[in-house]
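Colleagues,

For the teaching module next term, I've prepared a clean inverse folding example: a structure given as tokens, and then the sequence designed for it. I'd like students to try predicting residues themselves before seeing the answer, so please don't circulate the second half yet.
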């Protein structure tokens, strides 16, 4: 699947703010982010595109495809910035006495295109990636949020994504060919979160309609962001302030990465 290093809202920046009391609940909401082209890819070596897929007599394709994000269509327009991916946390996650909370998660939107066309014996193709149908909802224990300070910590996550690869001829001639696949991403303690994003991060409290099927039109209303900023880390600043800095991490599966 699409190996995607979640360079979550990955724009350089930091924000210094005063320390506040820790939230006891991470409110349900969405996590939009921008994918990084060098860390987002699909490696087809283990599961090649079969022979004859592109045209009669075409060879199996087992290459690696790097992807860049295409900003999602939203209403209101632009409220999620350049985000190409949206994950939704479905439950309010309540911290226990050990600072651990759980929630279910679901991939809700995905919009990628190959960094460059792939070359086949049938011609060159741009490869677009979108979600394929309703996505699985993970069990609640598949996202564990660990609080290490009043302002953040790390999280563990495992979720399955069903995605569509659309191969569009660069020439404009010939049919668009599609392939649907599924992969399961995992992430470990290098996945940081903070209770808010830093400078240039994506934050939108209101509901937003998002393109969830890859047709370029906003179609599904989702909640806004909450007090959980995936891919940000809170570090101590001067005078008791807190700096919020972006923290890149990679979610991986057997044949994909996203980051």
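(Answer key — instructors only)
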């Amino acid at each position: 699947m699409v190996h995607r290093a979640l360079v979550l809202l990955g724009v350089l920046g930091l924000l210094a703010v005063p320390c506040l009391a820790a939230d006891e609940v991470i409110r349900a909401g969405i996590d939009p982010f921008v994918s990084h082209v060098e860390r987002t890819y699909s490696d087809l070596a283990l599961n090649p595109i079969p022979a004859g897929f592109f045209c009669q007599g075409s060879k199996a394709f087992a290459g690696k495809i790097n992807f860049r994000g295409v900003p999602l269509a939203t209403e209101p327009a632009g409220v999620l910035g350049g985000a190409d991916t949206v994950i939704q946390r479905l439950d309010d996650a309540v911290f226990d006495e050990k600072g651990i909370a759980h929630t279910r998660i679901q991939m809700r939107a995905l919009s990628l295109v190959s960094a460059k066309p792939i070359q086949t014996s049938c011609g060159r193709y741009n490869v677009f990636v979108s979600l394929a149908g309703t996505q699985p909802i993970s069990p609640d224990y598949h996202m564990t949020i660990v609080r290490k300070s009043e302002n953040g910590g790390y999280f563990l996550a495992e979720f399955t994504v069903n995605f569509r690869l659309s191969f569009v001829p660069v020439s404009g001639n010939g049919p668009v060919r599609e392939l649907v696949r599924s992969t399961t991403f995992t992430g470990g303690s290098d996945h940081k979160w903070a209770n808010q994003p830093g400078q240039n991060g994506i934050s939108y409290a209101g509901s937003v309609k998002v393109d969830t099927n890859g047709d370029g039109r906003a179609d599904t209303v989702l909640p806004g962001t909450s007090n959980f900023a995936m891919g940000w880390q809170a570090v101590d600043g001067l005078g008791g302030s807190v700096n919020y800095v972006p923290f890149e991490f990679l979610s991986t599966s057997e044949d994909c990465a996203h980051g």
